[in-house]
Amino acid sequence: MSEMKKIKNLKEFSTSADRFEGANLLCPGCAHSIIVREVLNATNDDLVLAASTGCLEVCTAVYPYTSWDASWIHIGFENGSTAVAGAEAMYKALKTKGRLKQPDRTPKFVAFGGDGASYDIGFQWISGCMERNHDMMYVVLDNEVYANTGGQRSSSTPIGASATTTPAGKISYGETKNKKDMMGIMAAHNIPYAAQVAPNKWKDMVKKIQKGFATEGAVFINAVSPCTTEWKFDPKDTMHLTDLATDSLVFPLYEIIDGHELNITYRPKNIVPVEEYLAAQGRFRHLFKDQYKYLIKEWQERVDANWAYLNRREEARV
Amino acid sequence: MANTGWDEFEIGAMLRTFEGEAGDVVNTLQEDRNYTQNSSFSASVADWRIEKPVFNKDYCIDCQFCWVYCPDISIISRDKKMIGIDMDHCKGCGICVEVCPTNPKSLLMFPEKADEETEIAQWPSKEEKEK
After folding, report:
1. Which one of B18, B74, B80 has the shortest CB-CB distance to A11?
2. Would the CB atoms of B93 and A29 count as touching at under 8 Å?
């Protein structure tokens, strides 16, 4: 059971029997379930799952239905991570005492949370889990907004995005604060593995998830999840938006091992201008007015600087 | 549990996805699983659709892009072959059509009321690429 599932190509991957069910109430075209499926299908082991409050939780557990075929707990906004950490501690204790009923099975512990539950509300709890180095994986479904409650800004919302609490208008260009560097913060806990993934690069993503499952200790995964409702694009364009996010380097794909060994895992052949990424979304529409056009230039500079920083870190191994 | 009202629902209660023992879920395909009424698999969101995807197997190359990018587990792939669409769970988002790489596409969106056989009979032909 503990043997890693072999996934050489997409055809082989497609023989997986899903443990996440349809008829959940996520919006049509929501990237959350694409990410969840890629995570769950990456392993054949038993799963112990939790979801912090957010779109994923409320849409997959609408009474009297559940969309999960594995043990899954419905829990508060902040403590999805600690619920799983507790289950993991229990598992370890029973294992040490030799009281496991099926000792040959090696369950994997995964907690899901949106960016609101991870970047803001559950932040100290996740930090605690990472610091204690529980053998678990925390997956952030990063859609850069509190999508479940009506699109309020979170600390993941990037500059210039119009959210319901930072609306763009004559005086304001929307969100004024830059996005929190969650990957950097989590890697600073010196956890064994942290990675940024995108569902469109499924092979890269599955590889990282499997690496995470194979790692003993805390694993942090940050996954970009374009939100058709709050980013304001057509549901059919979800994968196109994810492509733009990764190819424009707004959302670079990399991993950090033991807090210092940074590897960039995807280098786009043709780097797309950030302008194209911004233009594809309704939440940035106001940036294309003459008044705010300077922000697009600033965006590009910020993204370029971040990419240069990642490259330097990769080279220097710090 | 399915017949219990929300106010009779105990705190800490459990919803069971499968009848009896869960068994070996990973190695059991959806059609062979013994779902309870509590699994959303037994529910349907077919009424969400305005447009539906129609699958034309003549052009399909079984690349499985639609399978991996379907948010609603509605692309049915068995033995590495795409065999059809689960119309109970499809919400009609159209991602499968967008990611289909064949020319002409082997999946296209049509209005919900369109007749599948008629549409497949008049499937668009290969598009010439602009040079």
Report:
1. B80
2. yes
Q: Please check whether residue B112 touches A, CB under 8 A.
A: no
Report d(CA A71, CA B16) in Å as an integer.
Answer: 9
Query: Of all helices (H) and strands (E), which one includes residue B97?
Result: helix B95-99
Based on the fold, state whether residues B34 and B49 are members of the same structural domain: no
Q: For chain A, give every domain's residue range.
A: 10-316
CB contact under 8 A, A11 and B62: yes
ipTM of the complex, rounded to two decimals = 0.92
Same-domain pairing of B52 and B37:
no
The verdict on B26 and B60 lying in the same domain is no
Which of the residue ranges A161-170, A221-230, B1-10, B92-101 would you say has the lowest mean pLDDT? Answer: B1-10
Mutation site for B-interface testing, chosen from A6, A46, A66 by largest number of B Cβ within 10 Å: A66
Q: Which of A178, A196, A210 is nearest to A262 (CA)?
A: A196
Say whether residue B87 is in contact with chain A using an 8 A CB cutoff: no
- DSSP E strand boundaries for A104-235: 108-114, 137-142, 193-197, 219-224
CB-CB: which of A13, A64, A234 is closest to B2? A64
Instruction: Report the domain count for chain B.
Output: 2
pTM beyond 0.90: yes
Residue B119 lies in a domain: no
Task: Please write the tens of the pLDDT for every residue from A87-120.
Answer: 999 999 999 999 999 899 999 999 999 999 999 9
**Number of neighbours of residue A25 by Cβ within 10 angstroms:** 18
pLDDT reported for residue A2: 61
Same domain, B38 and B95: no
CATH number of A10-316: 3.40.50.970
Q: Which of A104-113, A270-279, A284-293, B8-17 has the lowest mean pLDDT?
A: B8-17
Average pLDDT of every residue of chain A:
95
Choose the closest CB to B40 out of A32, A44, A65.
A65
- Domain of B38? 1-43
Q: Largest Cα–Cα distance of chain B, in whole Å? A: 66
